[in-house]
Amino acid sequence: PPEIQPWTRINIIEASAKDPATAYVAANRYQLDDFRPYLYRTHDFGKTWTLAVNGIPQDTFVRTVRQDPASPQLLFAGTETGVYVSFNDGDSWQSLQMNLPIVPVTDLTLKNGDLLASTQGRAFWVLDDVTPLEQLAGAPSSIQLFKPRPAYRAARGRSFGPPSAFDGVVVDYYLAGAPNGPVKLDFLDAAGKLIKSFSSEKRADDSRAQRGRFGAAMARGDVVPAQAGFNRFVWDMRYADAEGIDGGTYLFGGSLRGPEVAPGQYSVRLTAGDRTQTQTIEIRKDPRVPTTQQDYQRQVAFLLAVRDKLSAANQAINRLLKAQQDVQATLKSASLNSAAGEKARKLNADVETELQQLYEPRFTGFDDQTLIYPLKLNNRIAALQSYVGGDYPPTQQATEVLDELSRELDGILSHVKQTVDTDLPALHSQLRSTAAAQ
Hints:
- The chain is an alpha+beta fold and about 450 residues long.
- It has helices at about 130-135, 295-330, 340-360, 375-380, 395-435, and strands spanning about 10-15, 25-30, 35-40, 50, 60-65, 75-80, 80-85, 95, 105-110, 115-120, 125, 145, 150-155, 170-175, 185-190, 195-200, 230-235, 265-270, 275-285.
- The protein is built from 5 helices and 19 strands.
């Protein structure tokens, strides 16, 4: 450009991928003791050039400039002290430093929605997922839910590198201020059926959560951030968890976690106060595995059935535990007559028998305890998860085992229903009649 003084270094020429008449030039003169920024643009094949450095400090020279391939108005500049961003084709710039140290940025590139920076002395840095910046058009409204970029359901045990920074669907959204009420994120399938819901309300201590071998509670869900400004939430692509047991759940070879969804089309719904926005989500299969969509659907259907059976078993356990407390309190009553006492003792024995069939309360997560305490029905059901994981459909043997355990569970549940819904009310009715007669 004729506006550039002699002996100026032309560091980068960035030709626009969208407009052949547009190009950008990053130049510098720091070796001549001129540390001012020089960044030029043209929209007429180089006939005229405009200096576009408004917002970049006058003592910060520019090393590189890049145009976002998905959003032509979005520019990134690498300077001697960090990264700057422009949302209006260079008319104005602002810092995009975030957690990047004050360091010379020698070059930038954009790849699959990530911004990569090479630095002088601080290695390579990556700003994961700049797609929300690509979707910004002027100032955001009171809330703005950005369309998530496609996510991959990664094949388990096949990774040849470090894990991804975000193992799931990255959801970015903007809140102009503190919302009036909780912020919710609902994830739905292609038919609009709810898969899982999250809220900004702090999760209370869940006494039914699964616990690790040393008793520490394992999280059953994440809290949605609700700060003014930009927020990010990562959905692990899983359905809702199974129901747990009061006081904590210990399982061997299985867990309460809901299964991963199959590859396909989904959506996310953001609710903040009285405002709601929805965006579609695409979840792709790992291209390295031969699993078909039908196989994924069969796997998810099987694991959801396992989850629901595990929930049914644990719900029955919780009902029996409450019934046991009730009956044992009744047995301590001084006014209990012989007939009612005999019925209460029989009912207490029935509850204990049914509990012993469903779960092992003495198991607290240590592997060697499985040699002492045999795994009961709820744990045997949960353990089916580990046999139908990864990216493969259930085998015929796994389906037959689930059918067998389901029949066993259904038989016990019918006894639980009789015990809790019929025998226990009958005991209370007898006690009331005895009390009224006295």
